[in-house]
Amino acid sequence: MVDSLRIVTFNTQLRSWAMEAGARKDPFFAESAEQRAKAIARRIINSRFDYDIVALNEVFDEDARELLAGELSGAYPNALTKADVNYVGAQLAGAGLALTGSVLLAAYGIAMLVNTKFEDSGLMLFSRFPFERIPPPAGFEGEFPTGLPYVFFKPYTLAEGGDASAAKGAVLARILLQPGQPCDVIISHTQAAYDADDEHHAIRTTQLREVFEMVKAHVGLPLPPDRELFFMGDLNVEGTFRLTGVGQEWTNAFNTPGLFFTDAIHDLWVHEQSPGIPAGYPGPWDLGPTTADGKRLDYILHQPPRPDRLTAQHLSIAYDLTTNAPAIDGAVIPYTSDHYALRADLAMDHPHCRVGTAFGASAAPSFQQNGTLRPGWMQWYRFDRAGTYAFMVVGLDGQQPRFEVYLASNMTIPMSQYRLEVLPDRGLKYVLPEAPFFVRVFFEDRDAGGRYQLRAYRYTGRNREEAIQLLPHVPLRHTTSATAPLNSDDPATPWDEGDAVWFCIDTDRVDSGQDQEVRFQLRHLYGLRIFNLLVLVEDGGQLHLLDQTGPVDAQGELVWATHRRTRLYLLAKRDDPRFPLGHPLKYSATDLVVEWTTNLTYLYGLKGGRPGNELRVICSDETDGFLGSEAGADDIKIELSTDGLVGQTISNDDIGDFDEGDVRSLEPWVQVVRYVESYKVELVEMDDLSEDDRASVTIPNVGQVEAMAGTFALMSKEADGTLHGWFQIDFGDGKYRFHCSLARWLPI
Prior knowledge:
Layout: E1 4-14, H1 17-24, H2 33-46, E2 53-59, H3 62-72, E3 78-84, E4 87-92, E5 95-100, H4 101-108, E6 124-127, E7 133-134, E8 148-149, E9 151-155, E10 169-178, E11 181-189, H5 201-218, E12 228-234, H6 248-254, H7 260-263, E13 266-267, H8 268-273, E14 298-302, E15 310-318, H9 326-329, E16 341-348, E17 359-361, E18 366-373, E19 378-383, E20 387-395, E21 402-407, E22 422-423, E23 427-432, E24 437-442, E25 450-458, E26 468-469, E27 476-479, E28 500-506, E29 516-523, E30 531-539, E31 542-552, E32 555-562, E33 567-574, E34 591-598, E35 601-604, E36 616-621, E37 636-642, E38 645-650, H10 652-655, E39 663-665, E40 672-675, E41 679-685, E42 693-699, H11 702-705, E43 712-717, E44 723-730, E45 735-743
Parallel strand pairs: 1-2, 11-12, 17-19, 26-28
Antiparallel strand pairs: 1-16, 2-6, 3-4, 3-6, 4-5, 7-8, 9-10, 10-11, 12-14, 13-14, 15-16, 18-25, 19-24, 20-23, 20-25, 21-24, 22-23, 27-34, 28-33, 29-32, 29-34, 30-31, 30-33, 35-40, 35-45, 36-39, 36-45, 37-38, 37-41, 41-42, 43-44, 44-45
Helix pairs in contact: 2-3
């Protein structure tokens, strides 16, 4: 049996010239399909994910198709290169194979259709594993002496709008993972919705029914217990519930007990990746959006977990296939597709192999657990308490495994280690602002395996080394020891840190050089002057007393200003005047709240060290040209200003022209921006016949953004106040969107 399988599905948006011209209403757009196809192929081959099966949707451009087939043939010798109404093209070990209508009719008994479609299905499938072979039909033995690949194409009977011009349908390929271990892979791109998410839902329902009939005819029902079945592609059923609630179409299609697409195979993202939805909606769980505007349209469906079968260990968004990578691409390519790829890492079912069966860890404050990984396996651990942690994984058989830490709200982008810090003998430091969170243990080399030990430690605040990290604008309620002092005074310091809880604060530099205002607060409810707040600043490894409140009866506050990257420590020192030393209630005042605030805002994308939106500019409505025509393209350059200072210009030569629907990533030029007053994104239309047209949005402090009604569209909000969304930039006769994430802190 195959222990490990890695698959991916990707809507590439490689439309033909005619399709693009029709969609844009402009025959003079800047064509990029060939360049993007070459980049996609190179990214697939160079991906650390090491894909076994690759499914591509929307490959309509013939030159792009040839590039993909040629570039991927070395790594994936078995491929379906084209699927049309009465023609299927395949590539087997480097040799092309054309199955025309007559062969398909004889081999599969499908009705001969007159091909009235302008485009084929746009589907391509690449596999490291060979296709199963079936005997050729009578009369074709000489042409196919080794048999025909089991690759079947079923055109859909219904389609509307632009989809009606393409041979929309489903491909079923039977792949041999090993001799005697067949795997059925179905790929499809169902009917699109144009103006509303549920538009043409009845047609999609019919198309899914036709997929079911194809499974019944070619695979058999009930599904054979010894065979894997995958159904994947852009199914155009909106499957995110964060803002709109659980969708009726998704429920009808993929969450109705008794139906094939719920019981026999199911939506892996919901049922195995994020088991808290939809029952726990909205909850903390990642909803897996696969499009630039935050929708989940791309799916992988598979049988529910069962012993001795492949199980989805981890689903994730394959940002590596859409993110600019000049070293691989050979050039800066700021746009790949309007979809993100969806991938799944599968292995034979084993204990704690997926999020839904993660091992429950305590970390109170220490946790230690041994495990064993076979090649291709991973194991998950679930922690239900937010805080500051150190993690370490030790290989027990000579090979060193890795680990990654994920918030439940984003299971694709792991949290970065906090400022590369290490707690001696305990591991790498992480700051986790919400729970549950998960630790994934795995080997980088999928052929490696062995025993390991995971160690976790939650910081307690007992001393400087274990200072609890405070996040800005997140009050931390802390309960300390009730029976004894937490620690002793260090006689070498001029201040008294005896019986004090240590907290850590990190300010960051401001890009403009302006000072940020920092406020420190301590609160308690005892009504007496019990707790004193001390602020210590670190300079060259040495601590200095910056300020202190003195004992406060309810609340104390200190204010400071800096534009530098500085580490400070807050000490909440307890000195209860109600009881003398030795009294059994001397340490009974245990509860306090500490908080710090700043007017610093981080604007970031995928490279911010924590989950975030890709920094993107999208043209939602092209500006008008001569006599109101939108012919041609918007020649855009972008000017970026931090706190009133123009700090960066992205030229039109770099970012490219914009037609309606065009998307450009800013990740090649912008990583993290730190500002205190505002960040301005200005689009400049370079016009040969008039003065440059300008449109902009000025983004204030993150705390003021949600009030920007009509300008800001919130896609999601995290527990610490981090916002993910987009801003509208309005030319008057054209509109653009700027996508970003805004936060008070980053771990990098």
